[in-house]
Amino acid sequence: MTARRSLITGASSGIGTAVALELATQGHALWITYTGRQEAAAEVAARCLEAGAAEVRVSRLDLRDAASVEALVAEITEAWGDLHVLVNNGGVCPYTAYPDIDLDEWDFVMETNARGTFWLTRAALPLLRAAEGDRSVINVASIAGQVGALATGMHYAASKGAILALTRSFARHLASEGIRVNAVTPGAVDSAITANLTPEARTKLESGIPLGAFGQPEDIAWIIAGLASPRAAFVTGATYDANGGTRID
Length: 249
Ligand SMILES: NC(=O)c1ccc[n+]([C@@H]2O[C@H](COP(=O)([O-])OP(=O)(O)OC[C@H]3O[C@@H](n4cnc5c(N)ncnc54)[C@H](OP(=O)(O)O)[C@@H]3O)[C@@H](O)[C@H]2O)c1
Description:
This protein is α/β, with parallel strands linked by helices. It is built from 8 helices and 7 strands; from the N terminus they run E-H-E-H-E-H-E-H-E-H-H-E-H-H-E.
């Protein structure tokens, strides 16, 4: 049987690495991207092959740059011609307090996280349409997009709220073609992003987590792998929380 083909953005680190490894154990062919950490991405690729990936390709992607997004899609089109799973995970998260957010930083965050997710999903649609069987997009949003900025900047919260709206919009738009679109909304997870927190901010965040500790990238990866599975065939337009109880409706 041919392997399912999956693209994971921002797989050089954190949650993206964990997703790549999880899908590798399921035998997916993987296309992973990095932005600054090329060596780390090469290491992740080697670990994925060891873990059982059918194939691993690595590209640089800057979601803020439409030409970079389009070049990646052109590469995949030439090499594979189709795609079963798109995981929109790559993103940036400055902790700038709101009075200090200037227009350049606002644009940087919105263009990377929100516009990048929109543009890559739009560009990858022909690849998803070309694939046979279950196809889905999983967007990594954040609890900040649901409840507003806790420790992160307001621009980050706004960008993740936009990703949730895009998830629902694409889910409606693509349901008739059988392409599913879902989101995960992690709370605080140990990664390069949260390594930038001050000790005080970390303690404050931790005290707001009823389960008592930050999550790990693997805690998010299995949900993404579940949503990417054909067994989730009836799930679209959904948002899956993983936040240690920080937000309970
Ligand atoms: N950690 C948390 O607490 C948490 C909570 C909620 C949501 N999230 C979301 O989870 C996702 C992954 O974050 P993480 O926690 O795993 O952080 P991370 O370890 O810093 O990983 C971020 C990834 O995004 C990539 N990236 C950075 N700028 C990019 C750009 N312009 N275009 C494309 N990719 C870019 C990075 O690439 P390089 O390293 O190669 O530059 C890296 O692979 C993000 O969308 C984040 O907002 C994280």
